[in-house]
Amino acid sequence: MKEYFFIVNPHSSGSKAKRIWPLIKDIIEKERFTFDYKFTEGRMHAYNLTIEAIKNGYKNIIGVGGDGTMNEIINGIFNQNYKNSREIVVGIIPTGTGNDWGKTIGIPNDYIQAIKIIKEGKIIVQDIGKVEYYNNNEREERYFANIAGMFFDAEVTKNTNISKDKNKSGAFSYLLNLLTTLYKYKSQKAKIIIDDKATNVNVFSMAVGICKYSGGGMMMVPSAIPDDGYFDITLIENIPKLQVIKNIKKIFDGSFIQLKWVKQFKAKKVEIKSKEKIYLEVDGESLGHSPFKFIILKKVLNVFGGE
Ligand SMILES: Nc1ncnc2c1ncn2[C@@H]1O[C@H](COP(=O)(O)OP(=O)(O)OP(=O)(O)O)[C@@H](O)[C@H]1O
C-alpha cells in the first residue's frame, strides 16, 4: 500500500499546477514518498477522488491545488463512511490563486517548503464548519476549513470566479472585482442569530471563520483560532462606500476591525435569514443562497501543518 495519494488540480491558478506538477513529482520521488496520484478533470472531481482513495485504504490525502480543490477534498472526507476523519491526514501543496487556508496554519506558498512540511509529518488538528444553504430552493450542505463569506464578500468572490473562468486570476483581479462590485452593491437587511441571540441588521459583509485569511491575503477574521471549537465572526454593518475604499489597506492587516461599522463575535452556531436572497461562498467557492445555518465540528480534521 502506497503511503500518500496526491490529487492534482491542473487547472488551479491559470494552469500553474499543470506546469509545476513535474517539478513537484520529481521532488517527492527524490524524497522517497511512496505515492499514487490523479489529475482532477472538473468540478467536484477532487471530492470523488478523495472518497475513492479513502475506500482504497489511503490515509494521507495531499491536494495540489488552491482552496477550492482543498475544499472538495475536505467534503470528500466528511461525506464518506469508510474511515473516521481523525484516521486521515490532509496535506496542502498550494498551487492556487489565493491559497488562503494554509496561511493560518503555517503552510508556505512555496511548493518546496510545503513538501517539507508534509515530509516532516507534524500534524495539527483543526475545527471544521458545516453550512446548510439553498441552491435553486433545494437544501444543500457543505463543509469548510477556512472561511465562509456572505453579502458583499460572496458577490466579490462570485465575480472573481467568473474572471477566473476567463483565465484572469490573481490578487489584482480580486481587488479589481472588489471595486467594481462595490460600485453596484447595496447593504442587505437580515436577521442574524448568533448562539440563539437574534438581531436585525443592515449588513454590508459578513465572514464566518475557522481560519483568518480570504480574498488572496485579506485578514477578514483576525481573531480566528483554528482549534478552539468556535467560529469567529466578522460582521460589517452598513458602511459608506467611500470608507471601504479609504480603509482597504486595513483589511490586509486586520486593523479594519477597529472601525465603528465592524463587530466581532465568537459562536458555536450561526443562523441567517432574510427576505432578499443573500449569496454564499465557502473557501472561495461560490455556492447558493440564504437562509443559512452554520455549526462547528471541534477538532475533527488532521492537517500536515507548520504551527
Ligand atoms: N480539470 C479541471 N478543469 C477545470 N476546472 C477544474 C478542473 N479540476 C478542478 N477544477 C475546478 O477548478 C476550480 C478552482 O480550483 P482551485 O480553487 O483549487 O484553484 P484557484 O481558484 O486557482 O485557487 P484559490 O481557490 O486558492 O484562489 C475548482 O472549483 C475545481 O472544481
TrEMBL record:
<dbReference type="Pfam" id="PF00781">
    <property type="entry name" value="DAGK_cat"/>
</dbReference>
<dbReference type="Pfam" id="PF19279">
    <property type="entry name" value="YegS_C"/>
</dbReference>
<feature type="domain" description="DAGKc">
    <location>
        <begin position="1"/>
        <end position="135"/>
    </location>
</feature>
<keyword id="KW-1208">Phospholipid metabolism</keyword>
<dbReference type="InterPro" id="IPR017438">
    <property type="entry name" value="ATP-NAD_kinase_N"/>
</dbReference>
<dbReference type="GO" id="GO:0005886">
    <property type="term" value="C:plasma membrane"/>
</dbReference>
<protein>
    <submittedName>
        <fullName>Lipid kinase, YegS/Rv2252/BmrU family</fullName>
    </submittedName>
</protein>
<dbReference type="InterPro" id="IPR001206">
    <property type="entry name" value="Diacylglycerol_kinase_cat_dom"/>
</dbReference>
<keyword id="KW-0479">Metal-binding</keyword>
<dbReference type="InterPro" id="IPR045540">
    <property type="entry name" value="YegS/DAGK_C"/>
</dbReference>
<dbReference type="InterPro" id="IPR050187">
    <property type="entry name" value="Lipid_Phosphate_FormReg"/>
</dbReference>
<keyword id="KW-0444">Lipid biosynthesis</keyword>
<dbReference type="GO" id="GO:0005524">
    <property type="term" value="F:ATP binding"/>
</dbReference>
<keyword id="KW-0594">Phospholipid biosynthesis</keyword>
<keyword id="KW-0460">Magnesium</keyword>
<keyword id="KW-0418">Kinase</keyword>
<keyword id="KW-0547">Nucleotide-binding</keyword>
<dbReference type="GO" id="GO:0016301">
    <property type="term" value="F:kinase activity"/>
</dbReference>
<keyword id="KW-0067">ATP-binding</keyword>
<dbReference type="GO" id="GO:0046872">
    <property type="term" value="F:metal ion binding"/>
</dbReference>
<keyword id="KW-0443">Lipid metabolism</keyword>
<keyword id="KW-0808">Transferase</keyword>
<dbReference type="GO" id="GO:0008654">
    <property type="term" value="P:phospholipid biosynthetic process"/>
</dbReference>
<dbReference type="InterPro" id="IPR005218">
    <property type="entry name" value="Diacylglycerol/lipid_kinase"/>
</dbReference>
<dbReference type="InterPro" id="IPR016064">
    <property type="entry name" value="NAD/diacylglycerol_kinase_sf"/>
</dbReference>
